[in-house]
Amino acid sequence: MLVRQVANMLDLLEFFAAHGKPASLAEVSQHFGWPRSSTFNLLSTLGARGYLFEPEGRGRFYPTPRWLAIAQTISAAEPIPDTLVRLAGDLNDRTGETVCIGAASGGSLMFLEVVQSKARVRYAAEVGQRIPLHATASGQAIISQWPSRQRSALLRKVVFERYGSGTPMSVETVEDQIRAGLFRGWFRSASNYSVDLGGVSLPINISERIFSVTVAGPLNRVEVRMPEIARIMHAAVAQHFGPRYLSEEIKGLTTPPLDSV
């Protein structure tokens, strides 16, 4: 049996996705042929719960980022594919550094799997740890695969804060770093978020879920190895996912990777 109120809410979401702009109560009511009172009740309820807002302040409604944050949190909680877990272990063996698997959750990246380096001095990341999407190689690898509208919506909300010498401090700088990462075939962090930490990241797309895999360690040990680590990562991904995976499944990524930093 179809639950009409649920169907109406889903229709409304699809309406906003298709139109991509705010709409008034009258426009929504006319589009669907709903009574104005029912339309008002639906819009008011979603607004009171924080799922709609009025960006123009003139009675025109649009979905808030809360939908995206909840969807990403649900997605991040799904079991990690076994192939990705095996890749993390393999990269740990090949590089000797800490390897992290991450996924977007709201405006942050959350680590879902961490394989620690055995070195005494290492990146001691933890499962569940959150880092900014915009400021890190791990996050930029993920948002490089987002549609431009989704990425722009995220970056418009960023409050830029200096974490380290490599932190991007503007939307333009983030976009430049993403373009550079795609061009060289790997994303890099060098004191972007954690001071004196370096990392190399790649995006991984599995059934339309975007993950990042990151090899990270002390900057004084990792920085000179970044091109080598990138080659190791490309080779490991080819072994676990197939030789043409990165060129066919990851949009815009150069393969094989370039040695330029």
**Alpha-beta content class:** alpha+beta
What is the CATH topology classification name of the largest domain? Beta-Lactamase
Main pleated-sheet profile: 6 strands, antiparallel
List the total number of helices.
11
Please give the radius of gyration in angstroms: 21 Å
What is the CATH C level class of the largest domain, in words? Alpha Beta
Q: Could you estimate the helical fraction of the residues in percent?
A: 40-55%
Using the alpha-carbon principal axes, give the shape: elongated
Give the strand content: 15-25%
Give a count of the beta strands, DSSP E runs of length 2 or more: 9
Question: What's the overall average pLDDT, rounded?
Answer: 93
Structure description:
By secondary structure, the protein is an alpha+beta fold. It folds into two domains: 4-63, Orthogonal Bundle (Arc Repressor Mutant, subunit A); 71-249, Beta-Lactamase. It has helices at 4-19, 25-32, 36-48, 66-76, 82-95, 137-143, 148-156, 171-184, 219-222, 226-241, 245-249; strands spanning 23-24, 52-53, 60-63, 98-105, 108-115, 130-132, 187-190, 197-206, 209-218. The longest helix has 16 residues, at 4-19. The termini are far apart.
In short:
With 261 residues, this protein is of the alpha+beta class. It has 2 domains: 4-63, Winged helix-like DNA-binding domain superfamily/Winged helix DNA-binding domain (Arc Repressor Mutant, subunit A), CATH 1.10.10; 71-249, Beta-Lactamase. It is built from 11 helices and 9 strands.
